[in-house]
């Protein structure tokens, strides 16, 4: 089964952007890890990144149309994009797993990061575990798909 792993704005800068917060590894290395973790779980993982809100919203519509589960780090869109929240709601309303991931723990940072407009429509949220959070999110997707089959 195919899963998309969507990364929002500035995550193309992983490795160079605030390495103390986001680590020293880049997006290519996150992609390779997600693909390897997916293989372990029987999932074909397609890792994407965009700085463009409209493009990320379009990926949610595509996920609904193609019945594709989503792992998403909405990055800064997390905190203010009602457009993305409405698009993400369509994914979870369709009964598809939608796991929200943050590399850092936004609750432990600036106050504007405490609000997620995505969390209310996500199946679940994983924060503060670095790149490993994507592995946990992929495991959660595999778990949800397994439960659906029962
Ligand atoms: C982030 C946390 C957000 O607050 C921030 O805007 C990001 C990355 C994270 O992965 O920890 O860009 O989503």
UniProtKB/TrEMBL annotation:
Instruction: Provide the catalytic activity annotation.
Output: 3-dehydroquinate = 3-dehydroshikimate + H2O
Q: Which UniProt keywords apply?
A: Amino-acid biosynthesis, Aromatic amino acid biosynthesis, Lyase
Which pathway is recorded for this entry?
Answer: Metabolic intermediate biosynthesis; chorismate biosynthesis; chorismate from D-erythrose 4-phosphate and phosphoenolpyruvate: step 3/7
Sites binding substrate sit at: 73, 79, 86, 103-104, 113
InterPro entries assigned: DHquinase_II, DHquinase_II_CS, DHquinase_II_sf
* SUPFAM superfamilies (alphabetical): Type II 3-dehydroquinate dehydratase
Q: Which residues form the active site?
A: 22 (proton acceptor), 102 (proton donor)
According to its UniProt record, the EC number is 4.2.1.10
Q: At which residues is there a site annotated Transition state stabilizer?
A: 17
Which family does this protein fall into? Belongs to the type-II 3-dehydroquinase family.
Q: Quaternary structure per UniProt?
A: Homododecamer.
Stated role? Catalyzes a trans-dehydration via an enolate intermediate.
What name has this protein been given in UniProt? Answer: 3-dehydroquinate dehydratase
Source organism (scientific name): Bombiscardovia nodaiensis
Question: Taxonomy-wise, where does this protein's organism fall, top ranks first?
Answer: Bacteria, Bacillati, Actinomycetota, Actinomycetes, Bifidobacteriales
């Amino acid at each position: 089964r195919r899963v998309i792993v969507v990364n929002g704005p500035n995550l193309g800068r992983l490795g160079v952007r605030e390495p103390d917060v986001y680590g020293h590894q880049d997006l290519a290395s996150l992609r390779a890890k997600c693909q390897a973790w997916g293989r372990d779980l029987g999932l074909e993982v397609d890792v994407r990144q965009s700085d463009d809100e409209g493009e990320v919203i379009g990926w949610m519509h595509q996920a609904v149309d193609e019945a594709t589960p989503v792992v998403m780090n909405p990055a800064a869109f997390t905190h203010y994009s009602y457009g993305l929240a409405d698009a993400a709601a369509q994914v979870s309303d369709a009964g598809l797993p939608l796991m929200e991931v943050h590399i850092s723990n936004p609750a432990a940072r600036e106050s504007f990061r405490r609000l997620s407009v995505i969390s209310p429509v996500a199946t679940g949220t994983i924060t503060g575990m670095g790149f490993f959070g994507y592995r946990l999110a992929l495991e959660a997707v595999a778990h949800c798909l397994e439960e659906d089959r029962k």
